[in-house]
Amino acid sequence: MTATQILFLIAAYFLVLVAISYFTGKNDTNADFFKAGKQSPWYLVAFGMVGASLSGVTFISVPGWVEASEFSYMQVVIGYLFGYFVVAFVLLPIYYRLNLTSIYEYLKERFGPTSHKTGAFFFFVSRVLGAAFRLFLVAIVLQQFVFDDFGIPFEITVIISIVLIWIYTNRGGIKTIVWTDTLQTTFMILAVILSIVFINRELDWTFSEFLASDELKKYSNFLVTDDFRARNHFIKSFIGGMFITICMTGLDQDMMQKNLTCKNLKDAQKNMVSFSFVLVLSTFLFILLGALLFIYAGQNQIAIPLMDGAPKTDLLFPEIALNSDLGLTLSITFMLGLIAAAYSSADSALTSLTTSFCVDFLNVEEKPQNEQKKTRKRVHIYMSFLLVIVIIIFKYILSRNVIDSLLIVAGYTYGPLLGLFAFGIFTKHQIKDKYVWIVGVLSVILIALIANINPEYLGGYVMGYELLPLNGLLTFLGLYFIRERKAAVV
How much is the average pLDDT of 302-326? Predict the structure, then answer.
């Protein structure tokens, strides 16, 4: 598939998104931008959330990680499943009872304004970094396989991507995203299924023969239970995965904003439970695809693509889809899946960042009615600029597999949110609100020091995704230390 053909495909897909934006953004009100009028069908939200959760990281990085991690990532995914049930039956009832626009308003109700701002700040940092990770991965693929052919620098590629997203989210916000995410999820899942079908056909296998093949067995190690000190031991991965979901979904304005557009709590819970099972199955398909990609590459002497002179396994899927002899249909399917992955994560991130900043930091709902929309539109532009800057910075500092980097960073930035919400929900203590930000900062510093302890000093124990719940525990203990003597009535 040529670079020109890919550009035409991107343009056509973008026009479809703009058309959806036109019909869903006719009102252009803050109520629709932030909450979609609380009229979204739960099944539509559930299906769309799959694409937003998978994003470009799962679409490209999970298959590219299979060579190094085999199937052990499924240990984390099983933890995700249990985490979604906690979100559905512990957190969602609180959010609906308080009728929140930003979920961090709960912290204001429970503890006070400093806790509110602290929670919103940690979400802000988490979501900027998370969205930048996802967009960075898609941008490097577009750069290597499209824009390099036209002599366009990476920085311009990023700017173009963000501008396109800004255009179709500017009016409808979350109301538009609920519908566009459905389209994007469809293309992503279709891309992985067709990729598996086409590659198996090229290898002269049926799907069942692929599952029974000796080649697959080389990658199919699922449980890591031999040495608890290992970074990817099952217990550590499972617990880490569960808390990653609780934080990156249940305590994340980006994901919860979609749930809060459902008509009522019961619909939101149906959405969350059904979404969780579909997501687990979809992720498993991506892992199977990863093994198939490496098998195909090995049999056809396809080298791992280079980035800045070093092999980059994240680029194997696009290399095979676009430059092998598997046909134009697979190339088109892959590009549609990739574009969908890019937009499904970035559009909701841009909208949630705008919502959180307007509600949590600027108190936009307290402004005169004629000022609210102007404020929201300005913030939407500022958030776009911020994402551009962070993505460009990543190009020069990021060296790890992207999904691994994303989950590691989550351990630092979401920990204080976990501790704050846990302390508010599971205790009746009030705290000295003005000191909360100190507790949050100290917990991040402590977890950074712990994460960098030489494993030799810990008997060979390697820190993994358990850093997230540990960070939450440190925050919880810090909040207990600054509690008021008299218990609060909730």
Answer: 80
Q: Identify the pLDDT of residue 490.
A: 46
**Range with the largest mean pLDDT of 129-138, 151-160, 257-266:** 151-160
Is the separation of the CB atoms in 390 and 346 below 8 Å? no
Residue 474: pLDDT band (50, 70, 90) is very high
When comparing pLDDT for 55 and 410, which is higher?
Answer: 410
Question: Contact at 8 Å (CB) between 418 and 468?
Answer: yes
pTM as predicted? 0.78
- Tokens describing residue 73: 């990532």
Is residue 27 scored above 80 in pLDDT?
Answer: no
Full 3-state SS string of the chain: CCHHHHHHHHHHHHHHHHHHHHHHCCCCCHHHHHHHHHCECHHHHHHHHHHHHHHHHHHHHHHHHHHHHCCCHHHHHHHHHHHHHHHHHHHHHHHHHHCCCCCCHHHHHHCCHHHHHHHHHHHHHHHHHHHHHHHHHHHHHHHHHCHHHHCCCHHHHHHHHHHHHHHHHCCCCHHHHHHHHHHHHHHHHHHHHHHHHHHHHHCCCCHHHHHHCHHHHCCCCCCCCCCCCCCCCHHHHHHHHHHHHHHHHHCCHHHHHHHCCECCHHHHHHHHHHHHHHHHHHHHHHHHHHHHHHHHHHHCCCCCCEECCEECHHHHHHHHHHHCCCCHHHHHHHHHHHHHHHHHHHHHHHHHHHHHHHHHHCCHHHCCHHHHHHHHHHHHHHHHHHHHHHHHHHHHHCCCCHHHHHHHHHHHHCHHHHHHHHHHHHCCEEECHHHHHHHHHHHHHHHHHHHCCCHHHHCCCCCCCCHHHHHHHHHHHHHHHCEEEEECCC
Which of the two residues, 98 and 53, has the higher pLDDT score?
98
Mean pLDDT (whole number) for 227-235: 85
- Buried b / exposed e over 307-342, threshold 16 CB at 10 Å, is eeeeebbbbbbbbbbbebebeeebbbbbbbbbbbbb
First to last CA, the chain: 60
pLDDT tens per residue across span 411-425: 788 899 999 999 999
Which one has a higher pLDDT value, 135 or 163?
163
Separation between Cα atoms, residue 174 and residue 176, nearest integer Å? 5
User: How confident is the prediction for the chain on average, in pLDDT?
Assistant: 83
CA distances from 272 to 69, 130, 275 (A): 28, 21, 5
